[in-house]
Amino acid sequence: MKLRARTRVRFVATYLGVFATLLAWWYVLGLVSLTDQPIATLVLAYAVPVLAWVGVQRVTTGTRR
Amino acid sequence: MIEFELPLFLALAVISFVVTLMLFPFVEGRHYAAARPPLFVGGVLFMPLFLAIAVVLRTDWEPSTRAWALGVLMAAFWASAVWLASERTQGQFVSGLEFGPGLNFRPDLILPGGVNLVKGLILTGIGIMLSVQESFRLPAWNWWGFFLALFGILTLIPVRGMVKMLARRSRFLGRGARWQVPARWGLLVFGLVVLLYGFLAAFMGRVPFVEFRPVAGEAGLAAALFAVSVLALLGREFWKTRLPEGMESTAIRFLSNLWLYGAILVFMYAAVLTFMGRIMQPHPAENPAGLVLGGVLFALGAVLVLGARPRALRNELLGSIRIMVGTLTTMPDQERWRFMLERMRTIASYPLDQRTWHVAQMMSAVATLDPNARPVVEKTRAEVMMSLSSEERRRIMECMDRLVA
Prior knowledge:
Order of helices and strands of chain A: HH
Helix content of chain B: over 70%
Largest interface: A-B, 33 and 44 residues
Strand content of chain B: under 5%
Helix content of chain A: over 70%
Order of helices and strands of chain B: HHHHHEEHHHHHHHHHH
Structural class of chain A: mainly alpha
Oligomer: heterodimer
Number of strands of chain B: 2
Number of helices of chain A: 2
Radius of gyration of chain B: 23 Å
Distance between the termini of chain B: 72 Å
C-alpha cells in the first residue's frame, strides 16, 4: 500500500480535523454540563457520533452534492 | 471550570489518530463501504464516547443524576461493541490496501474481537468497583490514568490483533508457529497490566506514577492470584493450538472465552488487592445501589466477552479467508502460484472435516471475487492442483466430491 503525497496531506488534514472536532465536543460538553442540564449533555454526547456516522455514510456513498 | 490539561491533549491526539487511521479512505474511493461497512464505521465513531463519560464523572451533579447519566452513556458504549459481533461488520476485498502477501489493511478484521474484550473488561471492572464499596460512590477520573490506559487498549486491540492476523496467515500457509503462543500471551498480559493500572488510576482519581502505588496488606495473596491467572492464560494459549482451526464448535468457542474471562477476573481481583491492600467484597446492606448498578455493568461486560466475542472472532476468521483470497488477484503470477501451493498443501494436511471446511470457505471466497479477476485465481488453482503430489491432490479432490455430494 503505497500512498501518494496528496493522500498523505489529506490524511494529516483529516487527522487535525478529527482532533479539533473531538476537542470542541469535549469543551462544549463540559460547558453544557456546568449548566446542570444532564439531558442536554447526553443529547450532545449522542448527537456528535451519530451525526459523524451519518456524515461519513453520505460522503463515502456519494450521496452528497 | 473546564481545565485544559496536558494528558487530555495527549489522549485526544492518540484517539484522533486511531479514528482517522481506521476510517480514512486511503484508496477505496467508491468502494469505501465495501471495505468499511456502516456497522464498523459506527463502532469506531462511538469509541470516543469516553470523552462524554469523563465529563459526566467530573460534574458536580447529584450522585443519582450522575449514576443514571452514566448508565445512558454506558448503553451506547456497550451497544457499539455488541453490534460489531454482527457478520455485516467485516467487508469485502478491495484492491489497493495490500501491505504484504495475503495481507490487507483491514481494521474491520481485528477490531470487533478486541473491542468486545476491552469494553467487556472495562464494564466488568467498573461493575466490580461499584459492587465492593461500603458506600455508593461513582468512579472519579483523571486524564493521566486514561492516557496510560490507552496504551493498554492499543496493545490489546490493534497490536495484538495484527500479531494474530500474521499468526493466522502463517498457520494457513503451514509455516512455523512456535513464536505465536508467547507472542499472544505476552501481549495479552502486558496489555492487561497497563489497561488495569491505567483505568484503576483514572477511576480512583489519582495521578499514576506518583501517588497510585501498591499496598503491602495482601501482597502474598495478590501475588498468588497473579501467578494463577497468567499461568491459566498461558495454558489457554497452548490449548488453543490443539484445536482444529475453523472447526471449533460454539461450545468450544464459548469455553475458550470463559477460560479467558475467568483468568482475567482473577487478574483483576489480584490488582484490586494489590492497590487496596485488603480483601474487598460486596456490602448489600450498606450499599445496595452500588451492588445493583455494579451487577448490571458486570453482566453487560460478561455478555460482551462471553456472548459477542466468540461470534465476532468467528466472523473475523471467515472475513480473513475472504480477504486473503481477494489478495491473490493482485499478486504477481509467480507469487500467487507459490502462495496458493503452500495454502493447498496445508489444507491437504488437515483431517477430512477440517479440510472440507477450508476448501468450502476458499471456494465461497473465490465466488465473491470480481468476475473479471476470478479467472486469474481459478487458472492458478488449476495449475497448483497439477503441482501437488498425487496424495495431496486426492485429499483435496475428496473434499470437493464431498461438497458436490
